[in-house]
C-alpha cells in the first residue's frame, strides 16, 4: 500500500531526510512550505500523515509545532522518528575556493544556533540571515550565485541543490538529535510499518494547572511518581494568556494502559487540572 | 550619577523601548548588535549593566539569552523590567497607499509568531523574512525602499526609521508582555534606582537533576512546596548533552533570605542536584 506523507519542505530539509531514512520508496512524499501548512494538510485529508520537527536535543522544542498543535490544530501524535543531526558548511560551487571569505551565513535559526561557536570563531563578522528551513536556505544560495554566502544544511541539501560541502560536522555539540512527530487527526491511527525498527513506547500528555501554585505542580508529579510512571521529559510553555501561566508537556516511557495512566489522568482532573493525551505511540531511532 | 547601559540594538528594538521607558535621561545607552555581544560587553566592563530580553508571555523564553547565560557567560540577574508589547504594521512611506500589496514581511521571528493569525488572514501569500530584531527589520526596510515589504515593529521604530504605521496592534493575543533582564557580573550589584517604581521580589534558580527520574523533580518541588516558597515559573531547557537531559529554571516570588531559600538549596544539593542562584532582585512593571 502506498501512503501520501506531508513533510516540512522544501526538498532536503532535515524533516525530508528523516522521512527518506525511515520510509524508503513505499510512500509518496509531499513538501509543504511551513509547519502550519503541513499540519493543516493532514487535518483536511490532503495527505495520510504529516511529519514535522517536534524537539531538538540542543535547541529544545520547536515552539511553532507545539503551539500550533495545542492552540490551533488538535492533531494526535501517532509516531515519532529520531535522527542524528549533522550540520555541514556549504557554498555555491563557484565559491568553493574562496569559501572562507563569505560575508553572510544563511540557515534556519536553530541550525545557526547549533553552530554558534564555530561561526563565532571562523566568521565573526559575517551577517546571519534566517530562512524557514535549512532546505530553503540551500535553495536560496543555489539560485543566488551572486550572494557571497555560506549555508548550514545537511548532506541531502548539498546533493539536491548542487552545493559544495567545504567543512563537515560544524555543530558545536556532538550529541545532536531531532525528534519528528508523525501526526494524524485520529489517535488510534497507526503509521505505516517500519520493517527493521522496533520502536520504544511513549505517551505524551499536556497538563494545565488550575493555579500558579508550586503545590499543584508538585501534586501532578506525585501522581506519576508514586505509580512509577517514568517521565523522560517535562517542559513548560506559556499559555499565551499572561506571564506566569504555563502548560506542561510530559512524556512518559510507557504505552497507554487501562489502569495506571488513566488513573493518573483521573487524579489530575480531580485536582482541577486540564489534561489531554496528545498521543501514545512508538518512537523509532535511526 | 550617569551609568552606561548596553542593550540589544539597533535603536528602537523593544529592549531599547524598555530601557527608555524606565531610565529616561539618567543613563548613556549603548546598542549591541546581538544578545551575546551585549552580554560580553558587561562582562568585560565596557558598560555598567546590560539589558537583554529574557522571556515573552506569548513565545516563552528567549533561548539565546538563557543558554548564553547558563553555558557561556555566567552573569547575574540584578533586576528585571516588564513592559507590554504592542506590535504595529508599518511600511516605507512611499508604499503607504499600497501597503496591502506587500509580498514580504520582515521582522524578528518572535514578532512574526505573535502576529501569526493576522498575517495568515491578511497576507497569506507573503514571504516571511527574519531579522535579528524588530529594530533591525525596520532599519532594513527604511534603507531598502525598493523592497515591496512590510515590517512588524514598535512605535519607536516607526519614528526612528521614518516608517508609516498603517495598522496598529496586530498581535494575536492581547496580554503580551516581555521581561528584560538587567545583567551584571556581580550578584550583589544594585541597578540604578527607578524613582516611582516599587518592584516585586524575585529569585531565579537553576537546577540540574542527578538523573532523569520523575522522582527527583518531584523531590525538588517538594523542597520549595513545604516551605511555602511560591514558584511563579518553572521552565525546562535541554542541557545540550542529549535528548532527555534538562535543566530547570525556577522563579520564586521571594527575596533571598538567610533561612528558607538557603535551606532548600542545601537540601537539593544533598539530593545530588546542581543548584545555582542566577539572581535575587526586583522586577519592575511598566
Keywords:
3 domains; 286 residues; homodimer; D-Maltodextrin-Binding Protein, domain 2; Alpha-Beta Plaits; five-stranded mixed sheet; alpha/beta
| Total DSSP helices of chain A | 9
Assembly level:
homodimer
Indicate the proportion of strand residues of chain A: 25-35%
User: What is the CATH C-level name of the largest domain in chain A?
Assistant: Alpha Beta
So what's the overall shape of chain A? globular
Provide the structure class of chain A: alpha/beta
Question: What level of helicity do the residues of chain A show?
Answer: 25-40%
**CATH topology annotation of the largest domain in chain A:** D-Maltodextrin-Binding Protein, domain 2
| CATH superfamily descriptor of the largest domain in chain A | Periplasmic binding protein-like II
* Mean of residue pLDDT values of chain A: 91
* Low-confidence region ranges of chain A: none
Write the element-wise H/E pattern of chain A from the N-terminal end onward.
EHEHEEHEEEHHEHEHEEEHEEHE
* Global Rg of chain A: 21 Å
Into how many domains do the coordinates of chain A divide?
3
Alpha-carbon distance between the two ends of chain A: 23 Å
Instruction: Report the largest inter-chain contact.
Output: A-B, 50 and 50 residues
Number of strands of chain A: 15
CATH architecture term of the largest domain in chain A: 3-Layer(aba) Sandwich
Major sheet summary line of chain A: 10 strands, mixed
Organism (chains A, B): Metabacillus sediminis
Pathway (chains A, B): Amino-acid biosynthesis; L-phenylalanine biosynthesis; phenylpyruvate from prephenate: step 1/1
Domain Prephenate dehydratase (chains A, B): 4-185
EC number (chains A, B): 4.2.1.51
